[in-house]
Amino acid sequence: MSIDKTLLPIRIVFVALCAAAGWLVCYTITDWDRYRGVAFTVGLCIGLLVVLVDFLLKGFSLRGLSAVTLGIALGGLIAHMVGTSPLFAYGKDFDPTRIYLAQLALFLICPYLAIVIALRGKDEFNLIIPYVRFVPHEVDIPLVVVDTSVLIDGRVARICDSGFLNAGLVIPRFVLNELRAVADSNDPLKQARGRRGLEVLNELRRIKNVDIRITESVVSKREDVDAKLVFLAQSMRAKLLTTDYNLAKMAEFHGVQWLNLNALAKSLRPELMLGERIEVDLVKPGKEDGQAVGYVEDGSMVVVNNGRPHIGQRVHAEIVSVLPTAGGKMIFARHVGETV
Q1: 3-state SS class at 177
Q2: How far apart are CA 277 and CA 296, in angstroms?
Q3: Residue 135 has pLDDT above 50, yes or no
Q4: From 2.40.50, 3.40.210, 1.10.1740, 1.10.287, which CATH number describes the 277-339 domain?
Q5: Of 15, 97, 129, 258, which residue is 20 to 30 A from 328 by alpha carbon distance?
Q6: In this predicted model, which residue has the larger pLDDT, 139 or 161?
Q7: Equal fold, 138-267 vs 277-339
Q8: CATH number 3.40.50.1010 is the correct assignment for the domain at 138-267
Q9: What does the domain layout of the chain look like in residue ranges?
Q10: Residue 52, class by beta-carbon neighbours within 10 Å (0-12 exposed, 13-18 middle, 19+ buried)?
Q11: CB < 8 Å & 24+ apart, contacts of 161-164
Q12: Closest CA to 209 of 268, 272, 270, 165
């Protein structure tokens, strides 16, 4: 059941109570018997007005309310300190009315400015009062902030399904907005990448024991996304999960631990030794006569001598040499006369 359907009966009862309260007010004041209809209408309108304000505040989070409360408190404190300072000391040449109006203006302006500043920096507000942070200090579960590239990459779902990533996944709202914008792009390639990211997100939700948390953080400019991701990871004492090398280095510069899926995949590649036999799928001919090129499961390219007749098949090959390259390793092997 959705929240709106749950709140509907409560709203109806609240409006009815407001109207009944307006009606009952006439019983407490003797001369108001003839105004019962008006009092009933006023109570009904007040109830409807409150419900309208409730609708207008839809989406206003507890963090926003906390920020507003802090703004009112700080603004009122500043206004009180200035209003009672020697600047407003009474004297024979001071008009009390003007002083009162100036103090009233302070109590209107200072809380307003403080509220605006607090709402603009809700995440910084979490650093001031730790108990309204996204995750309380007492909770020991590690957190990982996820960026858009990880969702588009897709491997995070398989890693979580395997149980190797035992942490809460924090997905900021601006990451979801960016992913949705990519999925709605007119470019077919970007659209496909965005839709794959949305599918991966749904896969993560279906995996049991995966703690997914959506934080209501937004950014006004696309250029600020990387900086906000790093800031969120800092404020939540979380790690940053990304496949973006530049973002990873930015996080490292700010002292944020980062997890790179490409680095993880590279570290999981098995160490191949000379004379070891491997299975390889041959997909195309090589440069030299009789050679065929294939790939093993980790993506490393294998050049197999005497393998050209077996293109399109999976064969057994024996490693004769391994050549390190910038993109990984190039493996040279010879066909041992067996197919899989």
Answers
A1: helix
A2: 12
A3: no
A4: 2.40.50
A5: 258
A6: 161
A7: no
A8: yes
A9: 3-124, 138-267, 277-339
A10: exposed
A11: 161/207, 163/209
A12: 165
